[in-house]
Design goal:
By secondary structure, the protein is mainly beta. It has one helix at about 20-25, and strands at about 1-5, 10, 30, 40, 55, 60, 75. The termini are far apart.
């Protein structure tokens, strides 16, 4: 499968979460903390902490809980 992340095309495997696909490409900084502006990424990997919230096809999702879909569009760093 192929997904677009901040305009960049990356490959992903069917059945994996978006968080895993991003980490495999070395993309670990998904957004900035609203208060301090510090980097945020994957932490609990089970959808509890919301540290990996990212925008996918125009909606906010937990990257660790979102299965990859061919052609999905991901925009990081846009959530405040």
């Amino acid at each position: 499968m192929e997904i677009r992340v901040d305009g960049r095309r990356i490959s992903a495997f069917a059945g994996e979460s978006l968080a895993v696909a991003l980490a495999a490409e070395g993309i670990l900084h998904l957004r900035a903390s609203p208060q301090a502006g510090t980097p945020r990424g994957m932490f609990c990997m089970m959808g509890v902490c919301q540290e990996c919230v990212i925008r996918v096809d125009g909606r906010a999702v937990n990257a660790c809980q979102e299965p990859v879909r061919d052609g999905m569009t991901v925009i990081s760093g846009t959530l405040k």
